[in-house]
Amino acid sequence: MSIPKPLYADYIQQRIRTVPDWPQPGVQFRDITPLLQDPKTFRLLVDTFVHRYMDMQIDLVAGVDARGFILGSVVAYELNLGFVPIRKKGKLPYLTEAEEYELEYGSATVEIHADACKPGDRVLLVDDLVATGGTMIAAARLLQRLGATVVEAAAIVDLPELGGSRLIAGQGIELYTICDFAGH
Fold it and tell me: Greatest CA span in the chain, whole angstroms?
């Protein structure tokens, strides 16, 4: 099922900076920092997610290291929910679960505290963008391993040409994004 984009998706997309050839040649990096720097745009961005999720039954918001922390923690605060960080390998100080995944330009591992959520928790999973889908899928697997249900995955940007949104849907996870860079 296709989730309609908000009317102001173009407004948000126009404020995302494209940095060519970063972090390596051939990669078009979609930089969300201009969205965060402008208070009106940042508020619109946060409110978009808050309004989407305020009537859903959600127990926790999980954000993926590092840009998912920015949006996810603010959305959790606004929804009066707890926040779960899903970090890059070696950054969490307590007992962890780990999941390796492939990136657009390499591989990585994410970790979650073993007590970050409990069986039956309904979790909203947040990151800044979906490229190959590896990060979101790995994060969802960690949450599911702990017994949580991923209610939905959410991101600002989808890069559909890299196939991540299809892979996420193939895992049975609903995905909501505000804008995409198809053909850009």
Answer: 43
* pTM recorded for the entire structure: 0.94
Domains of the chain by residue range? 9-180
Active centre residues (catalytic)? 67, 104
Helix (H, G, I), strand (E, B) or coil at 117: coil
Q: What is the DSSP string of 15-65?
A: TPEEEET-SSTT-EEEE-HHHHHSHHHHHHHHHHHHHHHTTS--SEEEEET
Second CATH level (architecture) for the domain 9-180: 3-Layer(aba) Sandwich (3.40)
Give the up-direction half-sphere exposure of residue 95: CA atoms within 13 A in the CB hemisphere: 5
Distance CA 41, CA 68 (A): 17
Angle CA(81)–CA(85)–CA(90) in degrees, nearest 5? 160
Quote the tokens at residue 96.
Answer: 């962890």
Enter the tokens of residue 35: 């969205």
pLDDT at site 5: 74
What are the residues whose beta carbons fall under 8 Å from the beta carbon of 53, sequence distance 6 or more?
A: 75, 79, 124, 152, 154
**Tokens 């209610």 sit on residue:** 151
Q: Mean pLDDT of residues grouped by 10 in the chain (184 residues)?
A: 75 96 91 97 96 97 96 98 97 97 81 98 98 94 98 97 96 96 75
Q: What tokens were used for 118?
A: 């409990």
DSSP one-letter code for 3: P
What is the pLDDT at residue 2? 61
